[in-house]
Write a structure and sequence with these properties.
92 residues; mainly alpha; 0% strand; flat
Length: 92
């Protein structure tokens, strides 16, 4: 859907598409994590949300043709930082 429309000219389709993509990725992460039979910890849920958000952000950059190697490296460093921070953050 986004490949057929330009994100600049028709922003509503892009917003809906990326929001649905984020919801799908979060639910897919919960499904894959829940297949083990245990309940997911708060840390695992937080990591799933961070990874899903950065996948969607990368797809947004890619669809607007503004993802170069510097942007990708910056996103990778930010994702690693957020994952590290979520690991160190307290449960409360």
């Amino acid at each position: 859907m986004v490949a057929a429309t330009s994100p600049v000219t028709n922003i509503l389709f892009s917003v809906v598409f990326f929001l649905l993509s984020l919801i799908l990725l979060i639910n897919l992460g919960y499904l894959i994590g829940g297949l083990s039979g245990r309940s997911l910890s708060l840390k695992t849920k937080r990591r799933i949300k961070i990874v899903a958000a950065f996948i969607v952000i990368t797809a947004m950059f890619q669809s607007s043709q503004s993802l170069n190697w510097i942007s990708a490296l910056t996103l990778l460093i930010l994702a690693a930082g957020f994952l590290f921070y979520s690991d160190r953050r307290g449960a409360g």
